[in-house]
Design brief:
CATH superfamily of one domain: L,D-transpeptidase catalytic domain-like
Order of helices and strands: HEEHHHEEHHHHEEEEEEHEEEEHE
Strand content: 15-25%
CATH class of one domain: Mainly Beta
Mean pLDDT: 87
Helix content: 25-40%
Structural class: alpha+beta
CATH architecture of one domain: Beta Barrel
Radius of gyration: 22 Å
Strand order of the largest sheet: 8-7-6-15-9-12-13-14
Distance between the termini: 77 Å
Oligomer: single chain
Number of helices: 10
CATH topology of one domain: L,D-transpeptidase catalytic domain-like
Number of strands: 15
Length: 333
Amino acid sequence: MLRLVILCCLLAMAARAQSVAAQTSPAEAPRRPEDTPAAAAPATPSFEPQPVTDWLAAQVELFRRGFSCGSMDGVRGLQSATALKAWQKNEGLRETGDLDRATKEVFKLTAPVLIEYVFTVPDLTNVRPVPATWLGKSLLEALRYNTAVELVAERFRTNPKLITKLNPGIDWAAILPGQSIVVPSAEPVIPDAKVARIHVYLAEHVLEVVDESGRVLFHCPVSIARNVEKRPVGELHVVVVIPDPNYTFDPEVFPEVPEAQELGRKLIIPPGPNNPVGVAWIGLDRIGYGIHGTPDPEKVGRTESHGCFRLANWDARMLLKLSWVGLPVMVDE
């Protein structure tokens, strides 16, 4: 009798474990590198704050504090200077956008700038060339990363050119599990303060999340509509927050694309980092408008969209964590 009771308990535990696994690990969901972090060097036990002496260090530390520079490249570009100005304003410093003496006195590195990253098997299963055609995209299960460089660049918010520069001699076409590389370490911290609203500044191509006092909790570059008449101005509100969305390709929206005219029908494009709206969709209370990611982070803030507000995927993921249905979105000229 005792044996029978024990056997029944074991069977029940196994069934429960199988049920939980099925709920938490859907087989059809595309895996991201963020879902399965690669092996990295052990964290530094203690790190004394150090002065920021160059622009790569500045970009890394700004990201950690919630001030995105777009794709990190180690160069003082417009987006990096704008992010530094926003941080300087928060700290009550003169908004120079430069690493001046007053800024360096309070702007210190909180951790090493570079860390080691080791490729894993799950990483490399996410590398799969994306078809050039809309029809080809629609036939895939997910739109993952074209190359290992693209995967690492997005995972670490970095321009692909900087990744290759930091790792000379790497054969990126022949990456295997266990290959180690050097990457920037710029993991942002989710702010504790309550989010009050989102501001989109059209002239500056900047998006900011603020608290009730107006203090900036998150800052990033944004692409806006090419046509002025498609740029909504005034107060909008978040109506839906969707991670890893699919995308409906409508030929009527892309009259300039020859393939669209040949297809003559809508297509459902699967989710993934190379989806046209990236890895996040934050829908607004104006039909067809939203804030979303993009498969081309290096172009954010530099090129324009068909109408929505476009962010780098890593910034879209951060905004996803901060957004809630009903959140005001103020669009300022």
